[in-house]
User: What shape does this take?
Amino acid sequence: MKITSLFENKGKTVFSFEVFPPKKTSPIESVYGKLEEICALKPDFISVTYGAGGTGGHSRTCEIASKIKHGFGVESVAHLTCVNSSRADIDSTLEDFRENGIENILALRGDFVPGVEPKHDFRYASELCEYIAKKGGFDIAGACYPEGHVEAKDEVEDILNLKKKVDAGASHLISQLFFDNDSYYRFIERMRIAEIDVPVEAGIMPVTNKAQIERMVSLCGASLPSKFTKVMQRYENRPEALRDAGIAYAVEQIVDLIANGVDGIHLYTMNNPYVARRITEAVSNLL
Ligand code: FAD
Assistant: This one.
């Protein structure tokens, strides 16, 4: 199933998850138990990340996306980055996706890795979108950044670049995580002014431990509203309370987003079935 079709039902908020493959040093089967539990929650689809910097090859992403779809019966989306790939690398990855029945791709530029010379065949995600669209047969999604991408000069430039990505073939967008819904609503307004009118899913990351907060802020630069930091500070030395507070914060964000007519919610599950289940139970009647 092409996931863009999910957004045609305007009365229903799309609800999807993101998972990641295990490290190369662990057997791939090591995540299957958790994936089975996550799939049992029956989200509309699950996306599978691609190793940072294009490392680790695409095979684990492909294998897990295939297992989710054919083994656990949930539609899947394979992430694919391009900045460290040649055209031939991308061709062979697309062929593998096709052979494994994967119909949906989240087309990304990926990050530059210190010490790794980029391949120069694809400079931006929009070029990858255009390339995949020309090959045909795949539904293409793209990433977007409610608070702007870290490298963008300003929000206007970032939105104009996003428009290029949509014009190049991305028919649905998934957002970077954020903790302040107002910044998301302002972003949606800028998108509509720029006449970008594809469906957008809001990326929600339930923060359940202290290390995760620190890592996230340094990696993606999401701003932390004082409401959020106060909750996290209060419970930072009580792991179970912090986890419950993180789940409650994410649920509150989701309820507000649904009430404001969001197209979809994309939950960064961090491969944690317990957290995914608690959130799904809290919001499934609202979608
Ligand atoms: P682009 O859309 O190419 O944008 C990158 C930068 O270039 C932006 O600043 C943009 O404004 C600018 N730009 C774009 N087009 C042009 C143009 N034509 N001219 C000039 N400037 C331009 N990374 C992974 O390694 N693996 C993953 O699985 C993964 N999954 C992700 C999932 C989501 C939902 C998100 C939001 C991010 C994910 N990332 C992943 C991270 C992503 O690879 C990085 O954020 C990367 O820095 C940008 O990728 P992009 O596809 O958004 O790039």
Remarks:
- The CA atoms of residues 33 and 273 lie 10 Å apart.
- Residues 13-286 form a domain with the TIM Barrel fold (CATH 3.20.20.220).
